[in-house]
Amino acid sequence: MGKANGDGLLIDLSNHQTGTVATDAMKISVLASGSTGNTTYIETPTHKVLIDAGLSGKKIAGLMQQIGRDLNDVDSLFVTHEHTDHAKGVGVLARKYGINVYANEKTWDAINDKVGKIPLDQKFSLEAGEIQSLGDLDVQSFPVSHDAVDPQFYELHHDGKSFVVLTDTGYVSERMAGVIKNADAYLFECNHDMEMLRMGAYPWSLKQRILGDTGHLSNEDGANALMQVVGNNTKRIFLGHLSQENNMQSLAHLTVASMMQEHDFGVEHDFHIFDTEPDSATDLMTL
Predict the structure, then answer these.
(1) Which residues are listed as membrane-spanning (predicted)?
(2) CA torsion sign, 46 to 124 to 287 to 231?
(3) CA distance to 39, 127, 147, 192, 212, per residue, from 170 (Å)
């Protein structure tokens, strides 16, 4: 297994000169986000990557077609953790499309038996706190609090722009908030509405897991965390990983928007909030 570049330091990549030509920009699409599967697409002029592959290869290929892109052009896949809704399609994508896969060692140990054989020259280790440089794209990993063996998420940097993917964590610590502060765009977890979860049909043990420090962010938790990290650079917020049983898209959107407005954040003025779908891609947007 290859070793990712990076010395384990969290460095500030926010002061690069920003390009003015759209073709040189970073583009993003949340292909799918929800309890049934998650995958996000990011491209730069020289790289096309995915964060997670929690659906079948066929479904991910179809989602790519929705935004006019081809899985054959994707060169790298970064895995956040071993849960099926994030790792289901990892093996298929690696074998069929020759995509390089990055994950930390404990996550590799957890998914090796699930994803099938992947050629060794396509397997790379990237530990939390390290940065993988892919030429014009730097992928910075950071640890989160979730009930997986060693979960981590990612902030992607290109030409002075940054995009944070964070969809599975029980809470956002001050340290985490400091790492991901003032990104240009966020895909941020709003997993459940507290009352819907408490009143719903889930067994109490599962409710405790979701509500715990290694579970998932509620709509309110997501809003509070966003208010810690949103800055002047922030222009887009995608609300992700909504529970099909314990949330509604309109409720998540209303909760986050209203809470942020109450604290004088410029919702739909300084930045826009976008919904995501479990089976339909967002538009390909330029940062």
Answers:
(1) none
(2) negative
(3) 20, 20, 9, 12, 6
**Mean predicted confidence (pLDDT) in 65-85:** 98
Helix or strand run (H / E) with residue 3 = strand 2-3
CB contact set of 90 (below 8 Å; sequence gap of 6+): 53, 77, 79, 101, 111, 115, 118
Helix, coil or strand: residue 266: coil
**And the tokens for 86?**
């994030």
Write down the pLDDT at residue 1. Answer: 74
Nearest to residue 186, comparing CAs of 207, 170, 172?
A: 172
Which domains does the chain carry? 21-279 (3.60.15.10)
Q: What is the pLDDT of residue 99?
A: 98
Neighbours of 17 (CB within 10 A): 7
CA pseudo-torsion sign 193, 128, 137, 74: negative
User: Could you give the CA distance from residue 225 to residue 36 in angstroms, rounded to a whole number?
Assistant: 24
Q: Cβ distance 145 to 211 under 8 Å? A: no
Dihedral in degrees, nearest 10, Cα atoms 167, 170, 175, 179: 0
Q: Where are the beta strands (DSSP E) in 19-71?
A: 27-32, 39-43, 48-51
pLDDT computed for residue 7 by the predictor: 43
Q: How far apart are CA 94 and CA 118, in angstroms?
A: 6
Q: Is the pTM of this model over 0.90?
A: yes
* Confidence label for 5 from pLDDT (cuts 50, 70 and 90): low
Q: HSE-up of 35 (CA within 13 Å, CB side)?
A: 15
Identity of the residue numbered 41: Y
How many other β-carbons are positioned within 10 Å of the β-carbon of residue 175?
A: 10
